[in-house]
Specification:
Helix content: 55-70%
CATH architecture of the largest domain: Orthogonal Bundle
Strand content: under 5%
Largest sheet: none
Order of helices and strands: HHHHHHHHHHHHHHHHHHH
Number of domains: 3
Shape: flat
Structural class: mainly alpha
Radius of gyration: 22 Å
Number of strands: 0
CATH superfamily of the largest domain: Flagellar motor switch protein FliG, alpha-alpha superhelical domain
Distance between the termini: 40 Å
């Protein structure tokens, strides 16, 4: 069996709660790939399960084969691991994506291919399409598009206020020039908006994000300020309440935290030290002092990684990214 299938068999054998604990430590792309493999398994013979567990030096001598509703299992596991809001979107991508057509199929394509496919459309059409995709995917897609249209597209995403079914049908007809379409899954829904634009920018590399924000402010300062207010950056972690900060610190790789703090606001560093034991805080200070120069790109990558972990914990309801009485997600 391919590696993804072996991993899926193991996850199904673990049970919902244990599988959910494993998924919490995976990247979104890994969760999606593993969830797809799990959803494709309608029933497993004992022999296949034993092969997988034998590779892990385990045994199934006391266990029977697995026969479960894999789609229902995937839903429950993802809900437990990621929280309802985040899991719902991912479940749709996993379960519907196996037979997705039209606009939905874009969620399963490489970013470069999507950019090439929609790059010649009107910016409003591009904005509507991107509003249906995940922020991290949109950030990658925009990276393959000409710089002069990126800010225009983001601003159009920010000013979208829902798409009606007839408009989606017309859009699907436009996309039919590239591939066969099917708009039956779409319903009238709230897509786009200032928060969607902020999420896209949050997912982008910082230098590109800053350039786009500068372009947006130049064209529409009011809209730029509204987007900026909803963006959550690394230094905003200083606004977290202590209990949430302590939970976050338990999930952070120590070496990545050292790199990330090289470019952090001193207030955030002090917030982190205050939520550690004295011994751990002293060790972190020592690591920061002896750490040599670090490239800005490495600091940015480490900060984005930690923000990703923070958002995952927030989506699962384990922490709040806001301070007392406020919320950023």
């Amino acid at each position: 069996m391919p590696g993804s299938e072996r991993a899926a068999v193991l996850m199904l054998a673990l049970g919902e709660q244990n599988a959910a604990e494993v998924l919490r430590h995976l990247q979104p792309s890994e969760v999606q790939a593993l969830g797809s493999a799990m959803a494709s398994m309608k029933g497993l013979e004992r022999g296949r399960v034993e092969i997988v567990l034998d590779e892990l030096n385990a045994t199934l001598s006391q266990q029977a084969g697995i026969d479960t509703d894999s789609e229902d299992y995937v839903r429950k596991v993802l809900m437990n691991a990621l929280g309802e809001e985040r899991a719902t979107a991912l479940i749709d991508r996993i379960l519907l994506g196996r037979s997705a057509k039209g606009l939905e199929s874009l969620k399963w394509m490489e970013a470069r291919a999507v950019a090439e496919m929609i790059g010649q459309e009107h910016p409003q059409i591009i904005a509507i399409i991107l509003a249906h995709l995940e922020p991290d995917q949109v950030g990658d897609i925009l990276g393959y598009m000409p710089e002069q249209i990126r800010a225009d597209v983001i601003m159009r995403v920010a000013t979208l206020d829902g798409i009606q079914p007839h408009a989606l049908h017309e859009l699907d007809e436009v996309m039919e020039r590239q591939f066969s379409g099917n708009v039956s899954k779409f319903k009238s829904s709230k897509v786009g908006g200032v928060k969607a634009a902020a999420n896209i920018l949050n997912a982008m590399e910082t230098t590109r994000e800053n350039l786009l924000m500068a372009s947006i402010h130049e064209v529409d300062e009011t809209l730029g300020n509204r987007i900026q207010e909803l963006m959550f950056v690394f230094d905003d972690l200083a606004k977290m309440e202590d209990r949430s900060m302590q939970t976050l610190l338990r999930d952070l790789p120590g070496e990545r935290l050292v790199v990330a703090l090289k470019g952090a606001d001193p207030k955030l560093s002090e917030k982190i030290f205050a939520n550690m034991s004295k011994r751990a805080a002293d060790m972190l200070r020592d690591d920061l002092e002896v750490k040599g120069p670090v490239r800005v790109s490495e600091v940015d990558a480490a900060q984005k990684e930690i923000l990703g972990i923070a958002r995952k914990l927030a989506d699962a309801g384990q922490i709040s990214l806001g301070g007392e009485g406020e919320d950023f997600v």
